[in-house]
Fold this protein.
Amino acid sequence: MTNRRTKIMILSVLSIAFLGLAGAAFAQEADAENCKDHPLFSRMKNFYISDCKVSFDAVEFYLPDSPEKTVEGQVTRIDYSLKEGAQMPSVLQIRRNYGNAVKSIGGSILNDDSNNLSAKLVKNGKEIWVKLDVYNDGRNFTLNVVEVEAMVQEVTADAMYNALAKDGFIALYINFDTGKAAIKPESQPIVEQIAALMKSHLDLKLSIEGHTDNVGTPASNKTLSEQRAKAVLDAVVKLDVAANRMTALGWGQDKPIADNRSEDGRAKNRRVEIVKK
């Protein structure tokens, strides 16, 4: 009887120990507390988040044929680890997965070699940099997503007038809601400077001309550029400038000033020009 009880106790202890180890393993493979995937990128299959951090920080990007670049902004860092016993993907497979994800949302690959990938895109008016580091032969990787604040152009009425006097036009980078003609609040100072320009030079007449990149159809881009030019005109009129001193025109994607094959180029092409009449 005693031997039987002893065996039962030993088995119970072993079972508890086994369950404890299984629980510990399960806990290790659950996502770290308060961690989740970045909204732009899903994870690789069979990986869990071992750590994460969101803060204002700087990330170093190593680009081919150029010095390293430091990008500051809101940084989301996510560390991923492979679940125990899961099939390990290749380093190339992980790089291709995230590279394709970047391309699918309109981004550009800046560097893709060995264990690293760097990319850049613009989303909802924000410049976003992406850095992927793969290590331990693909068992672990770290994703850094740096969200740079939307570009805010600082331009004065005097600077506009000087450009008009010299070149006859000036390109303004006014931020709009994506795919719409609603001017974002951060661009209101530019509108106010256009109004100040018009009030300082009462004989000045302007053509306000909208331009887009080549994403979308030529017809839809022309319509959008016309709507945005009209939105700027209307916003200036609200600041007590006579509407008959301005006209609104949309060129769509017909007059690019940069290469539409890169995100930087597309960002430069999305502009509003004021042209002296």
